[in-house]
Write a structure and sequence with these properties.
about 270 residues; 7-stranded mixed β-sheet; binds S-adenosylmethionine
């Protein structure tokens, strides 16, 4: 098994994870439909606020609400490729959707490092949305678009076989058992990701929470829509194109390991 953690034996009970996932699958659908995020209120700098409110940023921040404290409406967004129709890359370039980019530094870095590819980031955290929008504008990036809203609602609107890559870096770990249903990686939610990925498309996640790492392996290895190029039960080596994220740095500071997972759509 490869990962970037120190060489220690895992204490995770994978049989218990399997039981918890079975229990979740048997929970009535209305109780499984629950947000994977919790809106956090944090300080916002003036330039972030400006990027959230000023119409001059609408080329990057595509569903600006014009107000603060409002969850973005994604109901009209049903084609992410069309967002790049007038850009240098055009709409046919490889397209990555990043779910939950946080403060956005790693997504910004990826978009800067791969100018021939298109990137869309979706978040609910306004300081991050404002920050990445402002910085993408400063850098003159035209291969990056930002959406405010719930990624699940967005995925439901997108066509089949639309995306080349979906990335989910350091998703909220929802550590308590009663919160496991909020984890982004569940069979239901990952079926939505699989539907929108092209055949051969990639799902890439990373976490610093060991239980969630093994939980993700259990979910993804059991789905017929995906295969694990590293072999069932194996994590991936951290690819060099994935920059360090803010939450990853925080985890490392607390002595956590880091686990990458890569799956390809069948
Ligand atoms: C733990 S943070 C990680 C942020 C960033 N990826 C990093 O590594 O620094 C997880 C982020 O996912 C966002 N998030 C969770 N569920 C989401 C959803 N359904 N749609 C959009 N964003 C979501 C949260 O708002 C939060 O900012």
């Amino acid at each position: 098994m490869t990962n970037s953690t120190p060489d220690t034996k895992s204490t995770i009970d994978t049989a218990a994870i399997s039981t918890q996932l079975d229990k979740l699958a048997q929970t009535p659908e209305q109780f499984r439909k629950i947000n994977t995020f919790m809106k956090r209120r944090t300080h916002m700098s003036q330039y972030c606020e400006q990027a959230l409110l000023d119409a001059r940023y609408h080329g990057i921040y595509v569903n600006a609400t014009g107000k603060l404290g409002v969850l973005g409406d994604v109901s009209q967004i049903n084609d992410l490729r069309a967002l790049f129709a007038d850009s240098a890359n055009g709409s046919a370039a490889p397209l990555t959707l990043e779910i939950g980019f946080g403060m956005g530094d790693s997504l910004l870095e990826m978009a800067k490092n791969a100018p021939e590819q298109n990137f869309v980031g979706i978040e609910v955290h306004e300081p991050g949305i404002g920050r990445i929008t402002f910085l993408a504008d400063e850098l003159g990036l035209d291969n990056l678009k930002i959406i405010n809203g719930d990624a699940i609602a967005l995925l439901d609107n997108l066509p089949n076989d639309h995306l080349d890559t979906v990335q989910l870096y350091f998703p909220d770990p929802w550590q308590k058992k009663r919160h496991y249903k909020r984890r982004f990686v569940t069979h239901d939610r990952m079926a939505k990701v699989a539907r929108t990925l092209k055949n051969g498309g990639k799902f890439h996640s990373a976490t610093d929470w060991e239980h969630y790492a093994f939980w993700m392996l259990e979910v993804l290895d059991s789905m017929s829509e995906f295969h694990n190029p590293n072999g069932k039960g194996n994590f991936a080596d951290r690819p060099d194109y994935r920059p360090l994220t803010k939450f990853e740095q925080r985890g490392i500071t607390h002595g956590h390991g880091v686990w990458d997972l890569i799956y390809l759509k069948n």
